[in-house]
Amino acid sequence: MGVLSTASLFAATVTTGLTAGLFAAFAYAVMPGLARTDDRTLVLAMRRINESILNGWFAVCFGGALLFTLLAAALHLGAERRAVLPWIVAGLVLYLVVLGVTAVVNVPLNNVLARADDVDDVTDLAALRARFEVTWVRGNVVRAVASTGAFGLLAWALVAEGRLLG
């Protein structure tokens, strides 16, 4: 049971870290770069990114972060491992914020872009961009901060577990 609880915590930490890195990269590089482009480029680029991101690697990281963190929490309920449970639960709570913001803010806005006409047929790309960009960026910053916090908490749980076992 000890190896499985440590392995699940390690997997939770890695997948949460990869997800945090994705959202952070969008916050400090991708969206600021797209902000410097014209309306057509931003809309088309975000459509292509939203289509491309739905793949197995993303699913393993994004979904795995939740599943592995839940598993790690469950496996740390025993008295000998309970000392790290508060760090795991706090990481889980922050990751639930990420999921909530994704579901309530970012995915609906992605769907707005996906449902719009072909980029060359949209009559007011500036309005489409305005409807999308500012709110999506704010939501993503929340996701970046929350997932980075979750990653830090899970990493600390690994350190604390190592001290308990060592």
Automatic annotation (TrEMBL):
Protein name per UniProt: Uncharacterized membrane protein
Organism: Micromonospora saelicesensis
Taxonomy, superkingdom: Bacteria
Pfam families: Anthrone_oxy
Matching InterPro entries: Anthrone_oxy
Taxonomic lineage of the native organism: Bacteria, Bacillati, Actinomycetota, Actinomycetes, Micromonosporales
Transmembrane segment boundaries: 53-77, 84-105, 141-160
Keywords annotated in UniProt: Membrane, Transmembrane, Transmembrane helix
